[in-house]
Amino acid sequence: MCQHESTAAPKKRIFSGIQPTGVFTLGNYIGAVRNWGKLQDEYECIYCIVDLHAITVMQGPAELRNNTMRAYALMLACGIDPQKSVAFIQSHNPNHAELSWVLSCSTMFGELSRMTQFKDKSARHADNINAGLFTYPVLMAADILAYNADLVPIGADQKQHLELARNVAVRFNQRFGDTFTVPEPYVPQNGARVMSLQDPTKKMSKSDENANACVYILDDKDTIMRKFKRAVTDSDAEVCYREGKDGINNLMTIYGCVTGKTMDEITVEFAGRGYGDFKIAVGEAVADHLAPVRNEYARLYADKAYLNECIATGSEQAYRMTRKVLSKVYRRVGFVDHK
Ligand code: TRP
After folding, report:
1. Buried b or exposed e, range 39-74, using 16+ CB within 10 angstroms
2. Cα–ligand 1 centroid distance for 18 (angstroms)
3. pLDDT surpassing 60 at residue 311
4. Among 1, 7, 202, 283, who pairs with 228 as Cys (CB 3.0-4.6 Å)?
5. Nearest 5 degrees, angle CA 252-CA 292-CA 316?
6. Crossing angle (nearest 10°) for helices 116-124 and 131-145
7. Candidates 13, 14, 16: which one to mutate for ligand 1, based on the most atoms within 8 Å of Cβ?
8. At 159, phi and psi to the nearest 5?
């Protein structure tokens, strides 16, 4: 028997999504998208630009359209290979929205009310507390459950949403019979949380008002250098990872992620040198690391025909994978077959 087709267990399935709300940050890259690429051989991966989720906060139509195409191209530039993974745009597969409705009838008002992201976002967008913002986690559950994903790479801020998806899956399965895989969070071994360069106790975020707080993966070298030179640190001068040194810890984490060096190696490298030197080294390492991503993005973004082809293939694959699940759900719930 040929070794490849053997008895090996089937690959586990991974689903993850990212919102098309502007260029990815260094935090999105190091914490999420870069790792997505590394999972493609070991797992069956499905990656989605979640434009349906994006409209839970106000978006200009032209901007959303642009941002969605950019996000798709960025995803490929970060190493997602559309030959290996299913890479698509959420609104192109109507099964997400359809399943979301059914799941919303197995989700309790009370449990959605407890979502901390809903509370935060409704405080930040008090003029637009729409129902979609409230049911956002149900759509996210539909994204995951429609594919029977085994594993979901997510950051800490999405843990509560994944927990909800698990609860909804279990509840539906109990009521209607085994239908959905109950997904587990996937925590990458070297997944790091990147903090703001201006307030290293907060996560790096594109919604930060301070432009120096956040590095974007398409920033040019001068911009990257400037942001790192201005990064907030502390008043001693030792490059070492220690509690209370949030700024330095963050810079060391970033430097380690882009160079592959350990904290000890970094400490030795910068022993006796000041923070100024270290910040320049981090800026350079980040700029060098991101240069190929920027180039690849420019190449892809100029090739709309190729991008559109990838998007079309991805959404077809996604549709086929999920239609079967949705049909099963409809039968289980008791909808009459349409012949
Ligand atoms: N809510 C996620 C975020 O903002 C994005 C997302 C949507 C997602 N659907 C998903 C992530 C499904 C993982 C799985 O980061």
Report:
1. bbeebbbbbbbbbbbbebbebeeeebeebbbbbbbb
2. 6
3. yes
4. 283
5. 110
6. 140
7. 16
8. -60, -40
